[in-house]
Amino acid sequence: MSASDSTSLKRLYGPRVQALAAALDSGDDSGFLSTLDDVLRTRKPELLEDLRDVTVNLKGALERFRLDARLADFAEREMPDARQRLAHVIKMTDQAAHRTLDLVEQSGPPAERTAKAAESLGASWTKFRARQIQTREFHELLKLMDKFLPAARADCELIRRNLGEVLLTQAYQDLSGQILRGVIALVHELESALAELARLSDAAPASEAPAGGQVSHGYGPAVPGVGDGGDVAIGQQDVDALLSGLGI
Amino acid sequence: MSKTLKFLVVDDFSTMRRIVKNLLNDLGYQNVVEADDGNTALPILQQGDIDCLITDWNMPGMHGLELLKAVRSDAKLAKLPVLMLTAEAKREQIVEAAQAGVSGYVIKPFTAEILKEKLEKILGVAVGPSVAKSA
Fold this sequence. Notes:
heterodimer; A: mainly alpha; Helix Hairpins; B: alpha/beta; 5 strands
């Protein structure tokens, strides 16, 4: 407490304390109580002010505590969880892509087989339709047709089954979409918590992080609406024009 | 002659390697080997029997630009046709790849037709049948 505070207290409370002491000595109960009420009335606004400060500090401390607890939860539990979920999305999409590729690769040979068999029948069939086919060739055509029809049916059935499975394999999109939405929500929450933390610590907004070395290492696929899109070549035509300008 | 060319496809994602390999097969090139980054690609290239390198840019380990620079600084590989097949689409990156000596640059997602067109350009030969798939 400074000397000026002490002087001001003496000035404010000195006469009242003396009056209190005098009233107590003389047995003046009502005078004592009335002076005491007066002292309390004088002190009340200051008490309220102090109480308000204490409350604000306590609120800030509680907020910080709540935020610290939330950030600790993010760091210890939710971020590792999110990492695992994202890794799972990569695994799921990888599996689905490979399964789709397997099915497409399996469907190529039967499609090609059917096309070739149909092509080999074509010449004899044309002659038959033009009534120019010889008996021996007609019997050959019948034999080929006997083989072709069930084989084509089996091959087409296989392709149809594979296409059906390709369709089902796309179900990963639903699951990965749900997981990604969950992670987006978490990132959003983390963003709010960090902004709140910055507010509580009165931190000034940071300047933009330097992007040194990123050009060489790569940015990853351009995402619409993310980052500085002005510098991104829009499509292959832009790339071609740019390279052509550089003599490539 | 061109169908005997040997390709090296470098991408950290095995699905993309498979897609490119399938497209090359469709174009008539059956001789395709794979690597998942520059570090595994370089020893394959140094064996000396690769005719065309198709590489991604963004890969863990040695990325595509480093691989391109390593290729261009190796006297035996300096003239190897290198096609960059990547999602990296910033102008400054394309310029950097051009300065490093890239032969062609295709951005993902791409079509089989674009791959065919760029291969024809960098290899200087007519390339396989036209295919309608896209990757």
